[in-house]
Design brief:
The protein has 141 residues and is of the alpha/beta class. It has four helices and five strands. The protein has a single domain, classed as Vaccinia Virus protein VP39 (Rossmann fold, 3-Layer(aba) Sandwich). It has a five-stranded mixed beta sheet, sandwiched between helices.
């Protein structure tokens, strides 16, 4: 029998739109990240999260971002470089009241300058929020 907490963690990858066999890169890992979220994604994809030095085409980037980490726009440009054409960047930030909390306005200001659009926000784990960023479409088909 699966405990309720375990079921929530198993679905976090699905809620992030991550599918089995996707290539997921993790940027900004530190000791404060939610290990249950990481484990759920690795279990769901059947592979390990790639680090920031990965040399592959990436389907999904997990960008752990905290207040004081630097310039978010620069980090998004770097994260976008290896991303597959329709790939997604999830910016994971500490929730309100947590150390390192990032104001949503900081993300909203950085996103358009790097050619991305913000589409949704999700709670992932007890201390982290995820903001979904996708490439702005150049043309509608």
């Amino acid at each position: 029998m699966v405990a309720a907490g375990d079921a929530d963690q198993h679905s976090v990858a699905e809620r992030l739109g991550i599918k089995p066999d996707m290539v997921v890169q993790e940027i900004g890992w530190d000791e404060d990240v939610d290990e249950a979220v990481r484990a759920a994604i690795e279990e769901h994809t059947g592979g390990e999260l790639l680090d920031e030095d990965a040399d592959e085409v990436i389907d999904v980037v997990l960008l752990w971002w905290r207040d004081g980490d630097g310039d978010l726009g620069d980090a998004l440009v770097d994260a976008r470089a290896p991303l597959e054409e329709n790939g997604v960047i999830w910016v994971l930030t500490p929730k309100t009241g947590q150390p390192g909390h990032v104001e949503p306005s900081e993300i909203a200001e950085a996103v358009p300058t790097v050619g991305l659009s913000q589409t949704s926000n999700l709670s992932v784990g007890e201390a982290w929020m995820a903001t979904r960023l996708v490439p702005r479409s150049k043309s509608r088909r």
